Amino acid sequence: MELVFAGNDISAETLVAKLNYVKDKKFAINVISKSGTTLEPSIAFREFRNLLEQKEVNPW
Predict the structure, then answer these.
(1) Using CA atoms, how far apart are residues 43 and 38, in angstroms rounded to an integer?
(2) I need a labelling partner for 35 at 20 to 30 A (CA). Which of 20, 43, 59, 60 fits?
(3) Closest Cα partner for 44 from 6, 4, 5?
(4) Residue range of the domain that includes 20
């Protein structure tokens, strides 16, 4: 098992690199945010969720 942390910065390049890293792997999402309104984790969650939803529609 490997942990990949995302949403701790606002860099689009970093987020895209992490999405590309996990796109061909099985992965799960666990969002941890103190306030629940922080921009960075919200954006990362949305993008990773979209990727998971795409994988469910087109698993291969």
Answers:
(1) 9
(2) 20
(3) 6
(4) 12-57
Q: How far apart (Å, rounded) are the C-alpha atoms in residues 32 and 10?
A: 16
The answer to whether 29 and 48 have CB atoms below 8 angstroms apart is: yes
The neighbour count for residue 6, using CB atoms within 10 Å, is: 21
CA separation for the pair 60, 56 (Å, rounded): 9
pTM of the full structure? 0.85
Q: How many residues does the chain have?
A: 60
The tally of domains found in the chain comes to: 1
Q: Would 6 be classed as within a structural domain?
A: no
Give me the pLDDT at residue 60, please. Answer: 57
